[in-house]
Structures are given as C-alpha cells and as structure tokens.
Specification:
It is built from seven helices and 29 strands. A seven-stranded mixed β-sheet has the order 1-19-21-22-18-14-17, with helices on both faces. Strands 9-6-8-7-10 form a five-stranded mixed β-sheet, with no helix packed on it. Strand 25 and strand 26 form a beta hairpin. Helix 1 packs parallel to helix 6 and helix 3 packs parallel to helix 6. The longest helix is centred in the last third of the chain and has 20 residues. It is elongated, with a radius of gyration of 32 Å. It starts with 13 loop residues before the first strand and ends with a strand. The relative contact order is 0.13.
C-alpha cells in the first residue's frame, strides 16, 4: 500500500488537533481499486460510473394478476352488463413465447409477465369472475389444482383504459442511462440495482482491513475472573466496533502485555492482514508505556521512511498520540491513549477519517452542527486545549453527559455527540451556541 511519509519528529512540540489530523490525512492514501463480486462489494466505494446496458423493465409487463385484454372489448363492461371474453391461455412470468390476444379474447396474466401481443391493458382478477361464472373473484386458483382456469370464458365487470396496470419498458431506467456514479458507497439498494442491470462484479476500492490491539498487563478478557489490580479490556472491543461502524473490516487482537518485544512480534504477525493498525495504551510518559518503547525507533535503518512519532496534542482528552508507518509496506499505525474515553474520542477525530480516506470517500468527517448548550452550570475548559465533552444532542440542543474524566465509560455510552470547546475558551455559559460533533 502506498502512503506518504509522516512529518519528522519535533521534540517537545505541542501539536494542534488540526495539525495532527492534517498530517494523518496527508499520509494515508486510498486503497487501490479491485474487481469484486457484488456481495463482496457491499460497503465499498465505486471507482467507475455505472451505465445501464438494458432497459428496466426490459419489456412491457403486468403489475397485477388478472387478464390481458383489448380496450374496446371491455369499454362498456359493468356489474350488470359484464363483458364476456374467451380465455386463450396463461401468460406467466418468464414466458418466452406469449400468446396473441385477438378481438373478444383475454389471456390470464400473472404479475411480472410480458404483455402479450394484441393486448392493450390489464384488468385485475378482482374486476372479473375469475372464469367461475359467479361474482367478483378474490384471486386465482393455482394452475396445478385448476388447469381449466386458462381456458373457457371470463366475465369482466369494469372497463380499463389503455395500458392500465402495465409497467412500461424502460419506465425505471433506459439503456444507456448512468445510474450510479463513481464515489457511491454500495448499500443494499445499490447492490440490488447492479444485479438488476446484469452486473455480477464491480470495480471498487475495498473496505480497509483494520487490526486493533490494546496494551496493558492489567487487562483481562471479558468473562474471565478479575484479580486484584486488573480491569477488563474494553478498548479493543470499542475500537473494533468503531472501525466496523466506519466501514472497515476490523480484526480484534486483544490485549498485549507490557513487553516491548512481545508487542513488536504481535504487530509484525498482524501486518499481513492490515491496511491500518490501531493500538491503545502505552503512549504517555510512564515507565511501562510499552507502545512508545517498542515503536519509537521501529524501522529506522531496515525500513527507511517508516517509524512512529509520539506527540503531545493541545486537546483534552487525548493529549498523548502516536502516528507513523511500520513494516515493508509502510502500513499506517495510529497509537491512541489507553483511557477509554480518550481512546474513543481519539478514534473519532483521527482514526475514523483515516479509515474513510482509505476507502476513497470524499467526506471523511462526522457531521458537525451548532447547538444551544443546556447545562446546570457553566462548562470549564483548560486554557490552550481544545476540549471534547460527551453530550446528548436532540433538536438543536446539546446537554453534557458525565464529567470530564477520561475513564467514564458509562457516561460515554449515553452520549451521541461531542461538545467542542475551542482552545481560547475557558468557560461556556448555559445557553451559549456551541459546535457539536454528531456521533451517529
């Protein structure tokens, strides 16, 4: 995978959120296009315009179960004076050699079946006696049970104008029409359309493969017993789910102990299936910050242009961050802080846009809106830091959820937005209009 090299390290520099993000997006490149079968292409981004080779529908067909007739033969039909027509046979969906309908005749026709030559309109079976010689029919009996329904006489109780209940050839799209543009994300409706126009494969940028791992000897997998000093590993689950939500194929590796060699070996093993690596934890200034220890000088000699730079950002939460590339293909790696809220906020700000860039999308960011802050007291924010507070947004109003602590997972679970407090603002009064990042 081709990618530009990140900026060289600048010790002690305090990066802004925008500078760090710009560096990531200038480095990460969209994945190369490939040809995929339709179902494998779900969630991928088209790299070609799709032109329809055949009209949809490809022929005039019935939108109802009923009888294909000539307009003149049913013009005066009524309950009191029904039109009696000779049934010349059945026209089923998929019929290759349809019948011809002449004056005084009708063909029993099924939904989706081609309008037979000579017929000008379709009368629903409910407007007829169904060939039973009685009142209005509620439906047709199965041909296997009553083959005689395809012959005999049928009474029509209502007139029908020309081309009633007929789906015209090309009424959906015409041959030569462009129906999908390059850059479209293939959702189920687009997959349906591609199949309907006869495309079995399509050229797309594949969904990026994202490998997620968390670090920390204190981490235990859910369902296992906790010993003193241990906590459950939630970050790898949160980040894997977030990567999938962003459109990636995400693999959760789980927790790696605080050992630099083990971490390097684990990452090397995962490179074969990674377009992007995401780690959490071990990026600060502690003696056991294993990610920083293991990756600060990765590839300096053997892999020129690769390596991970660890930075301090003017933001809260999420001040410590790491970014760079690793391995022979210079696979991008984003190292996030270990506190759950810091990790998740960092993902939304930096990893999600990187994933969307790999996919080849033009708009890689979450939507942002302006909203009225509704709170019991003013919000405070450290000077010089851009703060991202969890909040609940609805109908132009946002309400903070939980406190500013980066460990408050329960509060994060209640949030659907991030309240942005700029670097030059130290307090925000209730009623103030604020910027809000919508999380979905």
């Amino acid at each position: 995978m081709s990618s530009a090299a990140p900026r060289t390290a600048e010790p002690d520099r305090l990066w802004s959120v925008d500078e760090h993000l710009d560096d990531i997006l200038a480095t990460v490149r969209p994945l190369d296009p490939i040809e995929l079968n339709l179902l494998d292409a779900q969630g991928c981004v088209l790299v070609e315009d799709i032109t329809v080779p055949v009209s949809l529908p490809p022929f005039d067909n019935s939108s109802m179960d009923g009888y294909a007739v000539r307009v003149a033969d049913v013009a005066g039909a009524s309950e009191e004076y029904p039109a009696s027509l000779e049934v010349v046979g059945d026209v089923a969906a998929g019929a290759a050699d349809p019948l011809h309908v002449g004056p005084g005749q009708a063909a029993r026709i099924m939904t989706g079946a081609p309008l037979p030559p000579g017929a000008e309109t379709v009368v629903p079976v409910e407007w007829t006696d169904g060939g039973l010689g009685e009142g209005p029919a509620s439906g047709m009996r199965a041909r296997s049970l009553a083959p005689e329904g395809a012959t005999g006489l049928v009474s029509v109780h209502r007139p029908a104008p020309a081309r009633a209940h007929v789906r015209a050839r090309g009424s959906d799209v015409r041959a030569g029409d462009r129906v999908l543009e390059a850059g479209t994300v293939l959702r189920p409706p687009q997959i349906s359309l591609l199949a309907a126009v006869g495309r079995g494969t399509v050229r797309v940028r594949p969904r990026p493969r994202v490998v997620v791992l968390s670090t920390g000897s204190e981490l235990v997998q859910p369902d296992e017993p906790l010993r003193p000093g241990q906590i459950y590993d939630s970050n790898s689950f949160a980040l894997t789910a977030a990567a999938r939500d962003a459109g990636a194929i995400a693999y959760r590796v789980g927790a790696v102990a605080d050992d630099a060699e083990t971490l390097r070996d684990t990452i090397e093993d995962q490179l074969v299936r990674a377009d992007l690596l995401v780690t959490s934890g071990g990026v600060s200034v502690g003696a056991y910050d294993v990610v920083k220890e293991a990756l600060s000088h990765a590839g300096d000699e053997d892999e020129p242009g690769s390596g991970v730079e660890f930075r301090k950002l003017a933001m809260q939460p999420g001040k410590p961050q790491g970014f760079g590339s690793i391995g022979p293909d210079h696979t991008p790696l984003l190292a996030l802080p270990g506190n759950p809220v810091s990790s998740y906020v960092s993902f939304e700000l930096f990893v999600r846009p990187a994933i969307r860039t790999l996919m080849g999308l033009e708009d890689v960011h979450r939507p942002r809106v302006r909203a009225e802050l509704r709170a019991e007291k003013a919000l405070t924010s450290p000077k010089g830091r851009r703060q991202f507070l969890r909040g609940r947004y609805a109908d132009g109003v946002v309400t903070p959820v939980g406190g500013a602590g980066s460990h408050l997972v329960a509060a994060l679970a209640q949030a659907n937005a991030l309240v942005v407090v700029p670097e030059d603002v130290e307090d925000v009064a209730p009623g103030t209009e604020v910027e809000v990042v919508l999380l979905g």
